[in-house]
Prior knowledge:
Structural class: mainly beta
Strand content: 35-45%
Radius of gyration: 14 Å
Number of helices: 0
Helix content: under 10%
Shape: globular
Amino acid sequence: GNSSNSDYLSDYSAYRDASSDTYKSLQTHNGSSLTATNSDVAVNQDWVTGKIEMTSANHKLNLDGVLKATSTTNLPSSRLQPVMRGYSSGSTAKTISIRYCEAYNT
Length: 106
């Protein structure tokens, strides 16, 4: 369904690939504060395999099997679930393409 942007302001860990950014990034949010950790991979239209690994000590973003960003601040403390989101702040429609998603609790 449709949700407002404020629905996403609680705890989360996210892989961000936005055309308004220079680099793909890992975002961690603990319900009140956000940390964005840039990778060294430029934003583009290429397919990429992204993986976020979350532990109590840190969250890691792997792109195409290579560790690209680690965050240790503003880690979410609540239980999380996978969410795929395409967002447009203007009148131009945006699309998101997901080929596969896997989630598990270790």
